[in-house]
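re: ur question from earlier - yeah i can do the single chain one, its not a big deal. heres the input i used so u can compare w yours
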Amino acid sequence: RATRSVVIMASGSRRSTPEQLFDHVLVIQLELPAGTPKVLYRFPPATSDDSSDEPTTVVQFCFPEEDTLGAAVTTDSGNSQTFSFVLTAPDGSKRFGYCRRFMLQPPECCCIISLVASFSLFSDILNIVEQRRRISSTAVFSFLKALLAHPFPEAGDSFVAKTFSTTNPSGMDEYKITRPSTDTMLDYVSLGPLFSKLTISHIVELWGYLLTEQRVVIASNDLQRLSSFVTAMSALLYPFTWQHVFIPILPKSLIGYISAPMPFLIGCLHSSFRYIRESGIPMEEVVIVDIDNGQFLMKPDETLQVLPSKLTARLRNSVSAVMNTKSLGGKQVDAGIARAFLQFFRVLFRDYDNFMSRDEKLAKTKRVPKAINFDTKSFIDSRKKEEQVFLRAFAETQIMWMFMDEREDMALNGTVSKCILLKPCDTELPPSRTLSSFTTCAKRARWTLIRRMAMANYRYLCYCC
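and the output i got, formated as tokens:
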């Protein structure tokens, strides 16, 4: 089974748990030979006052290939595909789409729309959906109806969904549904394949463009490789989160977003990329990477060389050490790579919480009992000179603004010490001499009042939230 695009959740989310497990489910079928996707049915059925254009949007993300759909269903026959996306409404609210494509005749995609990100939970549900779909669509919807009879479980809790048996007409099938205590990125993201076509230096350079919120397009002929690569690159930002347009595979109908005047991370099939070039869509100041041939096709006029050279060299050496350790398995490699990139941030943001202080002026003006101020200038000035260059650029990004916004809330609640950047290196991850060369320094950091960047108001975009 191929696992496709996964959206990584930001830590410290303020979203409350909904009452139901999901809002609704859409089943989208691909009409052959034309290759036109359409909504086959929805569960529960839409109400009369539901005039949302969401189904049309979901169709585009469930079958983004368009011109190559006929070839895709032929070559992928027999393999299901799992992926997810995020729909962001004008008011900023988000809904998560969890999808499983069945290569039937004709192909179908079951898309669960929920208000909460819990990828492990919905992957288990989709496994059951796929199992029952082999029997009939009725078997699927009886299971979904049984799920709606239960509230959304709290982290670590379970419930048993009972529905009619697909093997015993007089019996019942029981399914234990468990929401994990935590959803970790390594459950759904594979980092090792990032380096199958591109060098470590290329990946680190691309990572630097993302940290400075450049407009990035990833191009490939392979649907699976493309979506996995885009998702993995966003995961390397952890514990920071990409805050802008995030579309692992760009449908042709949304090709105009390539010229959007805002940061984006977009995956684009070569067929769509050729269309972009032939159409003359402006692509100034866009970073374009061809991951099939392992090369940059376009970079900004002035190459950004803001990453601290010594820390970057350590990062490359750390990743190389992990990749060259033959005894490590797939997930151990992923964990080692994740640890290397995390340590880069740990060195830069060491003890930043000690620079947080109560802002008496803000508390008086805003009538907030415990307003927290984080002094950016003092934080940057306390770093080494080569680190200051990067941090000045990084301090202007929404990635860092939102991260510190969450940490201010954590400081108000007395939980900022739980931030992973303030914890010692996880000893459960694969050991490496190079990885352990990262050391924690004693300099302190502060942050100024958070500024929020105004963003263009598109009706539905796929965002990394």
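The two ends are 26 Å apart (CA to CA). not sure if urs matches, ping me
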